[in-house]
Amino acid sequence: MSKYYQVKQGAYPEKKRQSSSTEYVGESWSIKREEGKYILRYVSGGLQGAIKSVEVSKKDFEEAHLGEVTLNDLSKRYKFS
């Protein structure tokens, strides 16, 4: 019987990325300050889960750091999915 595929061992990162003064890191999203703009990156809900980007406000970045806003809140505010 021939092999249709080979199983390869993988590994997860040992440590979760940590938030900093220039980046907030959430569970499947982040907001990073880049060249004076705040860029939200998230994994889309599509079949292959592409990384998508949306520019958000400084207020949204600060609220994310304080735990006052979620990705769901931002998706409604900026109308992305």
Biggest sheet: strand arrangement: 1-2-3-4
Secondary-structure element pattern, one letter each: EEEEHH
Structural class: alpha+beta
Q: What amount of the residues lies in strands?
A: 25-35%
What is the straight-line distance between the termini? 44 Å
Estimate the mean pLDDT confidence: 89
Tell me roughly what share of residues is in helical segments: 10-25%
Number of helical elements: 2
Q: Main sheet, how many strands, which sense, barrel?
A: 4 strands, antiparallel
Multimeric organization = single chain
| Computed Rg | 17 Å
Low-confidence sequence ranges:
none
| Principal-axis shape | globular
Region (Disordered): 1-21
Describe the structure.
Residues 1-21 are annotated as: Disordered. With 81 residues, the protein is an alpha+beta fold. It has a domain at 23-78. It is 21% helix and 27% strand. The chain has a 4-stranded antiparallel beta sheet with strand order 1-2-3-4, with helices on one face. Strand 2 and strand 3 (37-43) form a beta hairpin.
Report a brief summary of the structure:
This protein is α+β, with helices and mostly antiparallel strands and 81 residues long.
Topology:
Elements: E1 23-25, E2 29-34, E3 37-43, E4 51-56, H1 58-66, H2 71-78
Antiparallel strand pairs: 1-2, 2-3, 3-4
Characteristic terms for this protein:
single chain, 81 residues, alpha+beta, 4-stranded antiparallel β-sheet, 2 helices, 21% helix
